[in-house]
Specification:
36% of the residues lie in helices and 22% in strands. By secondary structure, the chain is of the alpha/beta class. Strands 5-4-3-6-7-9-8 form a 7-stranded mixed β-sheet, sandwiched between helices. Strands 11-10-12 form a 3-stranded antiparallel β-sheet.
């Protein structure tokens, strides 16, 4: 990487940034997308990619050079980066294997739908919330294909602007200690609602929180049964730290069953949002193998953590919250996980917060065991 000259190196791509926005810290999200795209190409025999907000072109370069994409549509509405984009792709990609346009992303999606030109992977790396592009992005995605979304508005998904969360996501986002995961689940839930309105559904491939960015890759599917337990509300008790999922039918009786501080304390509710698995374990295990083959040890470790956390309850317990509610020292993470497993509970690290655990044990159990750590 040579930032002083404006040239960068990422994966197999070498590119100039100039006036385009480029965030090196987001490479992890691009790496996971490349792994998933490469597996898709291997399984389906083709890979056509639509990168709707391509910026400097690092994603098209990597999709072709590493995932072996057959065709890429690189769109960037900002005219100031067009020269840089053209230069990067002309230097790094095969001739006649890509298309560059300068249009609003929704115009591109409309065009794809009208022309029945559906893509295996639609990548929408937007700033702020991606909700203006959810419905239209689905129109450009092939059935069985992948939709990759970005959210950078963590203030709204973190419960700091409830009115705005209702306006943007059609869901109420409340503040609590596991809001990093809440952002992912709000995004999945909003996309699921848009897909079901079209008679389709989406399934998470993987969900990533990386500092201040949520990224979710979803598979668009048909003929899948609606699982009511996967779409509902998350309840949190500010009195004792208890979490539980709440169905639509229980909204009128959403009270904490564990809290000892106040009788029948009402739960703080967020939702509706996705309550099912965050990741497709079978595909993540294939991504682990491919990352090993490519000698990407840091991604191997990340993916292994994601496999372990995939189908645990839709929240996590921050170690500081366990200490606060238990009025005890903050427990050592690895030792607490070990003690929970010894008791027969599932417990693991989580990629969402390095100072937290995911487990199917209750907060009260975590506190009990933490006092003995």
């Amino acid at each position: 990487m040579k930032p002083d000259s404006g040239w960068f190196h990422e994966g197999k791509a070498f590119f100039n940034v100039a006036h385009a926005f480029y965030r090196p810290q987001s490479q992890v999200g691009r790496d996971l997308a490349i792994l998933a795209a490469a597996l898709y190409k291997k399984q389906h025999g083709q890979l056509r990619v639509l990168d709707a907000m391509t910026g400097c072109g690092v994603r098209p370069l990597r999709y072709q050079l590493e995932a072996e994409a057959d065709w890429i549509w690189a769109n960037e509405a900002n005219p100031e980066v067009q020269a840089t984009l053209v230069k990067n792709l002309s230097l790094g990609m095969r001739p006649r294997s890509y298309r560059i346009t300068q249009q609003d992303a929704n115009q591109i999606f409309f065009s794809c739908y009208q022309q029945r030109d559906f893509y295996d992977l639609v990548d929408i790396d937007s700033f702020g919330s991606p909700t203006p592009f959810l419905q239209t992005g689905l129109w450009a995605t092939k059935v069985g294909g992948l939709l990759y979304l970005t959210n950078t508005d963590t203030r709204t998904t973190g419960g700091h602007n409830v009115d705005q969360s209702v306006q943007i996501y059609g869901a109420c986002a409340r503040a609590h200690p596991a809001v990093h995961e809440q952002g992912l689940r709000l995004l999945i839930g909003a996309t699921l609602q848009q897909a079901t309105a079209k008679g389709m559904q989406v399934q998470p491939v993987f969900s990533l929180f990386n500092g201040s960015v949520h990224r979710v890759m979803l598979r668009l599917v048909l003929d899948q049964p609606w699982v009511a337990e996967n779409y509902g509300f998350l309840g949190y008790c500010h009195g004792c730290g208890h979490y539980e999922t709440v169905s639509w039918r229980r909204l009128g009786d959403a009270r904490c069953p564990a809290c000892q501080a106040h009788a029948s304390r009402p739960l703080t509710l967020s939702g509706p949002l996705w309550l099912g698995p965050l990741h497709d374990v079978a595909l993540l295990e294939q991504m682990v193998q491919l990352a090993q083959d490519w000698n990407w040890p840091r991604r191997v470790r990340l993916l292994q953590i994601m496999v372990a956390e995939a189908d645990l309850p839709p929240y996590y317990f921050a170690l500081g919250e366990i200490g606060r509610h238990g009025q005890t020292d903050i427990p050592r993470r690895d030792r607490l996980i070990e003690r929970l497993r010894d008791r027969g509970y599932r417990a693991t690290l989580t990629h969402l917060d390095s100072q937290a655990i995911k487990t199917d044990a209750a907060m009260t159990t975590c506190i009990e065991l933490a006092k003995g750590v």
